[in-house]
Amino acid sequence: EVQLVESGGGLVKPGGSLRLSCAASGFTFSMYSMNWVRQAPGKGLEWVSSLTASGSHKYHADSVQGRFTISRDNTKNSLYLDMNSLRAEDTAIYYCAREPAGNQDLDYWGQGTLVTVSS
Amino acid sequence: QSVLTQPPSVSAAPGQKVTISCSGSDSNIGDRGRFVSWYHQVPGTAPKLLIYDNNKRPSGIPDRFSGSKSGTTATLGITGLQTGDEGDYYCGTWDSSLEVGVFGGGTKLTVL
């Protein structure tokens, strides 16, 4: 059974940093591109970042470019999102999602981890 | 302001049919090499893939759900509406020009 479990969320002050993790199981992690998608309270989905299977190509939304970095460790079946210079508008539930075919079709999602940026 | 445009809400009675549109541009939906996916989200839960590659259904998704794409617009169709279909629906794809993933703003479905 495919499982994606996010962790690392919490309360952080503006300007602070946080690292999110996504533990994958039930599939060959190293063969899939992975994505982070977030959802602010009461708002819609916002794509954040994606990373190819080998880790050779990464993409970030303009809203997080230069502040967030996506990475992965295929030996640990884990995806990460390093978030720096956090702002109040980064407050959201962060989901990791699997992308099987490079077509931005996200077939499995984790349950999400809440990040709250507030003083 | 989302790159893809969806109606904020739609509603219909149980058993009826509804369609949800998703309008984009030549660099995303209109790009012939790009595919559209649709997701259903019940409040408080993670999104679930309903349609991928414009019109394919993952295993376990009933054929009441269908997808299509024409030009710069994609459409989700749901027939035989059930109360369990209520929630938010999102379209998504990749924008070749911006090199970013994009979602629609979401459509809230109410089954009256």
Overview of the molecule:
The complex is a heterodimer of chains A (about 120) and B (about 110). With about 120 residues, chain A is an all-beta fold. In chain A, the strands form two sheets. In chain A, strands 2, 4, 5, 6, 9, 10 and 11 form a seven-stranded mixed β-sheet that branches. Chain A has a four-stranded antiparallel β-sheet with strand order 1-3-8-7, with no helix packed on it. The termini of chain A are far apart. Helices cover about 0% and strands about 50% of the residues of chain A. The mean pLDDT of chain A is about 95. Chain B is about 0% helix and about 45% strand. In chain B, a hairpin with a 4-residue loop joins strand 7 and strand 8 (about 100-105). Chain B is built from no helices and nine strands. Chain B has strands at about 10, 20-25, 35-40, 50, 65-70, 75-80, 85-95, 100-105, 105-110. Chain B has about 110 residues and is mostly beta strands. In chain B, strands 1, 3, 4, 7, 8 and 9 form a six-stranded mixed β-sheet that branches. The chains are: A mainly beta (about 120), B mainly beta (about 110). The interface of A and B includes residues 35, 44, 47, 59 and 62 of A.
